[in-house]
Structure formats: structure tokens, C-alpha cells
Amino acid sequence: MTVKLMFVSVALLLVAGCTRAAVLANTTWTLTSFGQPGAETPVLAGSRIILEFESSDEASGSAGCNRYRGRYQIRGSAITFSDIGSTLRACARPGKTIQEEMSRGMGLMWQEEQYLAALRTTGRFELVADSLTIFYSDGKGVLRFTRSAPSR
């Protein structure tokens, strides 16, 4: 009886993990803010950071300038990203130089670097209706997204 109960419990946990991954599969999200919880920085005006969960383990999107691609895994309320690669363009918004765009806290390239670094250190996530929150750096940072239409 105990072995049977333990088997059922493990099976339910596996199904719960698969269900959560399936909920994110084939969805698209737009980043609205990032940084320290409660003191997040809004995404720079004129830029758009997109996260697309293409299948049960592949993700891609736009980091504001460059396209990126990688894998993700969900276990319970934890999400991790791995094998993240991106194109290597340098971008500037109209009226800005590349040097300005690399400026800490103000530039498009700085924002992109912060976003991709955050994806590499993700932990817990919360999904409520059309809002996705992903915590990174052991909960010291947060990525806040809203559901959006696919970019393709």
C-alpha cells in the first residue's frame, strides 16, 4: 500500500510539472520591467523584449536588438534556461550612439545584456492570467512579462 501511494504521488508530481510546461508552450510574452523586486526598471521606451516558449523545452525571442534562442525546463514552480545563444549585432535607437546604448541603466545594449544574464540565473516563476513573473539571481531580481501575440 505504501509503495503504491508513493508511486501515485511521484506520478502526480511528474504530471504537474508537465502541465505547467504545457501551459507555457506556444505562448509569447513581452517584458515590461526588470530588476530588484518592488524597484523594477521599466523597459526602455522604443524597445521591445520578447520571450516565446515555442514548445515544451525551446524558447526564443528578441532581447531588444538581438535574437536569442535556448532551452527551458520547468520543475514545479521553478524554471531554468540553458544553452542560450544570441546574434551579435550592435544597435542604437534613433538619435543615440552605440556608446550611449551601452551606458549603464540607460542604453539598449545594457538592457539587453541585463536581460540575457537574468535568463541564465532564473529560479521560481509565477503565472497569473496574462502575467508571467520570473525571479532570478536567487530572488534578488525579477522579470515581469505580459502575454502578447506571437511575433511571427
Structure description:
There is one protein chain. By secondary structure, the protein is α+β, with helices and mostly antiparallel strands. The protein has helices at 2-24, 98-101, 108-119; strands at residues 27-35, 41-42, 50-53, 58-62, 67-75, 78-86, 122-128, 131-136, 141-148. It has one domain (2-148): Lipocalin (Beta Barrel), CATH 2.40.128.270. It starts with a helix and ends with a strand. Strands 1, 2, 3, 4, 5, 6, 7, 8 and 9 form a 9-stranded antiparallel β-sheet that branches. It is built from 3 helices and 9 strands. Helices cover 26% and strands 39% of the residues.
How do the strands and helices of this protein lay out in sequence?
Layout (H helix, E strand, L loop, with lengths): L1 H23 L2 E9 L5 E2 L7 E4 L4 E5 L4 E9 L2 E9 L11 H4 L6 H12 L2 E7 L2 E6 L4 E8 L4
Antiparallel strand pairs: 1-2, 1-3, 1-9, 3-4, 4-5, 5-6, 7-8, 8-9
The whole-angstrom Rg is 17 Å
Reported CATH architecture: Beta Barrel
Main structural class: alpha+beta
Number of helices: 3
Straight-line distance between termini? 51 Å
Number of domain units = 1
Low-confidence sequence ranges: 2-19
> What gross morphology would you assign?
globular
Order of helices and strands: HEEEEEEHHEEE
> CATH first level: which class?
Mainly Beta
The percentage of residues in β strands lies in 35-45%
Largest sheet data: 9 strands, antiparallel
Q: Number of DSSP strands?
A: 9
CATH topology grouping = Lipocalin
**Estimated helix fraction:** 25-40%
Look at the structure and give the mean pLDDT.
84
